[in-house]
Amino acid sequence: MKPLAQTPAKAESDTDASTARAAGDIVHHPIASGPLGLDTSMKGKYCIVTGSNCGIGLQVARGLMRRGAHVIMACRNMTACEQAAAVLRGEGLSGSCACRVVDLENPSSIRAFVSQQAQELAVSTDSVGNSGSGRASGVGGDGAAGLRGGQQPQQARRYVDVLVNNAGVMGVPPASDGSDRHLTTNHLGPYLLTRLLLPHMTHGSRIINVASRVHYTGSLSLVSDPNGRAETIRNDTHHWFWQYCRSKLCNVLFTAELQRRYGYESPFALTAFRSSGSGVGVGIGSSRTLEGIGGGIGAHAVSPGLVDTGILRYLLPGQLQWLLAPLRPLFRTPAQGAEVVLYAASSPELQGRNTLFLHDCREKQPSAAARDPRLAADLWRVSAALLGMPEEGEEPGKGSR
Ligand SMILES: NC(=O)c1ccc[n+]([C@@H]2O[C@H](COP(=O)([O-])OP(=O)(O)OC[C@H]3O[C@@H](n4cnc5c(N)ncnc54)[C@H](OP(=O)(O)O)[C@@H]3O)[C@@H](O)[C@H]2O)c1
């Protein structure tokens, strides 16, 4: 695989990074600042980061704000979210943030979040100053649509520049109906969120799915009907580890199908736009043609490495966390874990590239299962069916669940 970023450099200078452990550096290859992405301005970019009240997500929010972005911190625990936002606001970063509630286990909560986002995006450029990213600005573009002197304020629709599907769980018990909450939180919730937000994205927007290298050990099997058409996801393991691995495999497969449908130069998107004219993902709205969008959306799955966060809390309650002490030297800091996310969200290097999977800010070949286009297409269709939504399109807020 061709390395996208090779130059070792300083870690992100977040608070955690200042305490970066030497042992962590053995396996960690921090990316360079400068043209490779860490210094890329995100001024005026509208970014949504799920699960940003702690762990990797919080560092991603911090990094985006440092680059000047407006970050929607999409979290389920508003108290924790507001506390985290207050810390970030107190750091004098050039960007801004706002807290919004979303519970990825609850489709109604996701739909309510997207409806609220739709309203917030439909504001005049005048009232948001230079934070409006304007049409077709994309990541790395010059951002603000702005108003010239003497112009009347006008309604100018803004778009989501970056969606980071970061929130996730590991080691959670099944739901009361026996369903796998790893699948619900780590895949189905982000799938629904992304599908509903696609109409609010534009050419150059990016979707970053925080996956993991454990997807290499994940397997996914879909139950088929007598005609061989996949119908549902087989719940063939009840062990949390394999469920987690499966959910992370779903992250990469979902990314692959996003690329096929809406990625750069996607032939599928071309067909979809030409045949329907509207209503399919990024093509929604009569004035938005494929030509106007000019190629599509960047979708990337990333692996942050082994990171010292609270993700093990479901397996090891607080009083037993000391058991992790011997392993901690192997862990990366959350700021280090966030680097690949920030790179994927902002680097000009990735513009126009359908890079599927990144680890250490380098392109890495994902597992054979993750590269199976049939499996990716089936997962897309089955996920839509499980959520009671059509395979393509859907106006936000009109779903059945
Ligand atoms: N840590 C690692 O070594 C590692 C390695 C590879 C991949 N990852 C991935 O990195 C991502 C972030 O994990 P992390 O290590 O930073 O873990 P973390 O510190 O536990 O953070 C997880 C975040 O997800 C949120 N979340 C969980 N369930 C949610 C739900 N139903 N709705 C909305 N938000 C929800 C959590 O909110 P609450 O605070 O309310 O629980 C928290 O903000 C995950 O996707 C994980 O799979 C982590």
Task: Describe the protein's architecture and organization.
Residues 131-149 have a biased composition (Gly residues). InterPro entries: NAD(P)-bd_dom_sf (IPR036291), SDR_fam (IPR002347). Residues 1-22, 125-151 are annotated as: Disordered. One of its GO terms (molecular function) is oxidoreductase activity. The protein is α/β, with parallel strands linked by helices and 401 residues long. It has a single domain (17-146, 154-386), classed as NAD(P)-binding Rossmann-like Domain (Rossmann fold), CATH 3.40.50. 31% of the residues lie in helices and 13% in strands. It contains ten helices and ten strands. The chain has helices at residues 22-27, 55-66, 78-89, 107-121, 181-197, 240-262, 267-276, 290-293, 334-346, 373-386; strands at 46-50, 70-75, 96-101, 160-165, 201-210, 222-224, 230-233, 298-303, 357-359, 362-363. The chain has an eight-stranded mixed beta sheet with strand order 3-2-1-4-5-8-9-10, sandwiched between helices. Strands 6-7 form a two-stranded antiparallel ribbon. A hairpin with a 2-residue loop joins β9 and β10 (362-363). The chain is globular, with a radius of gyration of 20 Å. Mean pLDDT is 80; it is low at 1-28, 32-36, 126-137, 140-152, 270-295 and 395-401. Bound molecules: NADP nicotinamide-adenine-dinucleotide phosphate (NAP). Residues 50-51, 53-57, 75-77, 80, 102-105, 166-169, 185, 210, 212, 304, 306-307, 309-311 line the site of NADP nicotinamide-adenine-dinucleotide phosphate (NAP).
